């Protein structure tokens, strides 16, 4: 029977000398999920990805891809990766590179499919050194999916891309994910995780500190903002309304931070203050910042003063 989990980390730790980069990581990713790995600089994302790809061996614990060791899954062609430091060869065209990469696999994606998935229609005749940063990333993406991997791993694929290139890149990624493939990507752009992932895993200081759908993680901070037009009688008393924890006046608007927007809005209505209402949930970025601020984000130094 097919093992339904694409990725399984059990009690995984890794250290570089005295720096414990990953500590006791447990993470299971079922097939077909798109998972964003978020965390501040030095959180352990790249180390986690390197262990997942079998490039680093854990000091403790086990990593399995499709029920097998990472190296076995890679050899079987089940894994495609786009890593931060990959460089493209100069002097050949996009079409020549794709033909070469496709030749490495027994059952590659047809070229037109690859070109469509990676948005390369207008670039096939272009030499690789003439591509912009965003275009190069899409070619690397095409190279990563050429062998139809069941699991696609992307380490900060949109670093240094402009907004439009990032948008194009995620559209390409979502097309591949929609075909039932599993995708794990790391990013520093929290809004990309919100838009493109089914699930967000946050690590800090080498430890998993949050794991859930973007909506669940947004809700975990529990706060909402209720905006109204500044009352004609002034803003006195707004901070005493039910569930309100802070009041901020910006121009002719009053913004109330609340733990219970329903209770706050009902009280505003009861006081005749409900004019020009807006209600916002917390953004994923707010939740992410609250979570990482609350955790010890420094990696553990073993046997040394911190
Ligand atoms: N080759 C190395 N030698 C020593 N320490 C390392 C090495 N690579 C990473 N580290 C340390 O391990 C910890 C985790 O690093 P890692 O690169 O996995 O984090 P990251 O979340 O990918 O960071 P970033 O977002 O900056 O890429 C950090 O404290 C880092 O300084």
From TrEMBL:
PANTHER family: ABC TRANSPORTER ATP-BINDING PROTEIN
GO cellular component: plasma membrane
Topology of the protein relative to the lipid bilayer: Peripheral membrane protein
Gene Ontology molecular function: any one: ATP binding
Record-annotated ABC transporter domain positions: 7-230
Protein name in UniProt: ABC transporter ATP-binding protein
Main location: membrane
Keywords: Antibiotic resistance, ATP-binding, Nucleotide-binding, Transport
Compartments reported by the entry: Cell membrane
Gene3D superfamilies: P-loop containing nucleotide triphosphate hydrolases (3.40.50.300)
GO BP terms, alphabetized: response to antibiotic
InterPro entries: AAA+_ATPase, ABC_transporter-like_ATP-bd, ABC_transporter-like_CS, ABC_transporter_ATP-binding, P-loop_NTPase
Pfam families noted in UniProt: ABC_tran (PF00005)
């Amino acid at each position: 029977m097919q093992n339904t989990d694409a990725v399984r980390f059990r009690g995984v730790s890794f250290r570089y000398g005295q720096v414990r980069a990953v500590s006791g990581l447990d993470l299971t990713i079922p097939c077909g999920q798109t998972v964003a790995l978020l965390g501040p600089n030095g959180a352990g994302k790249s180390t986690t990805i390197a262990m997942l790809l079998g490039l680093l061996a854990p000091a403790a614990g086990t990593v399995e891809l499709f029920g097998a060791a990472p190296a076995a899954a890679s050899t079987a062609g089940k894994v495609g990766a786009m890593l931060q430091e990959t460089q493209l060869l100069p002097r050949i065209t996009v079409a020549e590179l794709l033909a070469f990469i496709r030749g490495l696999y027994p059952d590659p994606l047809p070229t037109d499919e690859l070109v469509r998935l990676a948005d390369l229609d207008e670039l096939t005749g272009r030499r690789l050194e003439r591509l912009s940063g965003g275009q190069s990333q899409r070619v690397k993406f095409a190279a990563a999916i050429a062998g139809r991997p069941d699991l696609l791993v992307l380490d900060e694929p949109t670093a240094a891309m402009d907004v439009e290139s990032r948008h194009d890149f995620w559209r390409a990624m979502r097309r591949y994910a929609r075909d039932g493939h599993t995708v794990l990507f790391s990013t520093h752009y929290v809004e990309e995780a919100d838009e493109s992932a089914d699930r967000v895993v946050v690590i800090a200081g080498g430890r998993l500190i949050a794991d859930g759908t973007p909506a669940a993680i947004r809700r975990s901070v529990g706060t909402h903002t209720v905006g109204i037009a500044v009352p004609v009688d002034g803003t006195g008393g707004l901070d005493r309304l039910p569930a309100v924890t802070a009041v901020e006046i910006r121009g002719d608007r009053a913004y109330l931070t609340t733990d219970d927007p329903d209770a706050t809005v009902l009280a505003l209505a009861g006081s005749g203050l409900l004019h020009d209402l807006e209600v916002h949930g917390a953004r994923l970025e707010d939740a992410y910042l609250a979570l990482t601020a609350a955790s010890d984000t420094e990696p553990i130094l073993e046997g040394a003063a911190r």
